[in-house]
């Protein structure tokens, strides 16, 4: 299983891809050539991280990637790190605004 390409889903929602170098009984994982896959809508970016150590308590899921298959659907567009960070920020602001509006409307009690 060592030297397999993996995807690791972390507790904070991040998705890391890389080649497995090492792991232990606590699910601590070392990835070589790791990158963070950031997906916003139809856009994505693989942010390079290099050699990456992941503490086991942060791991939600570890999965092996098939090297022969495409990892993403054809409709996804690869963009630069700057573009994906801008899209992430806009998405977060929209989500925060929606939450703020919901709190303001609670007094109406539509239930």
Automatic annotation (TrEMBL):
It comes from the Eukaryota. InterPro entries: Lsm1, LSM_dom_sf, PTHR15588, Sm, Sm_dom_euk/arc. Its main location: cytoplasm. Keywords: Cytoplasm, mRNA processing, Ribonucleoprotein, RNA-binding. Residues 1-68 form the Sm domain. The keyword Cell inner membrane does not apply. One of its GO terms (cellular component) is P-body. It is found in: Cytoplasm; Cytoplasm, P-body. GO terms for molecular function: mRNA binding. The keyword Cytoplasm applies. GO terms for biological process: cold acclimation; deadenylation-dependent decapping of nuclear-transcribed mRNA; hyperosmotic salinity response; mRNA processing. Pfam families: LSM. Belongs to the snRNP Sm proteins family. This is U6 snRNA-associated Sm-like protein LSm1.
């Amino acid at each position: 299983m060592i030297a397999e390409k993996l995807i690791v889903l972390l507790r904070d929602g991040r998705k890391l891809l890389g080649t497995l170098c090492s792991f232990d009984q606590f699910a601590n994982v070392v990835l070589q050539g790791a990158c963070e896959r950031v997906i916003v809508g139809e856009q994505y970016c693989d942010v390079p991280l290099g050699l990456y150590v992941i503490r086991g308590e942060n791991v939600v899921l570890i999965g092996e990637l098939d090297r022969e298959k495409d990892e993403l659907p054809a409709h996804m567009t690869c963009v630069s790190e700057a573009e994906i960070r801008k899209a992430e920020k806009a998405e977060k602001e929209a989500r925060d605004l929606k939450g703020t509006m919901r709190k303001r409307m609670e007094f109406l009690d539509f239930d």
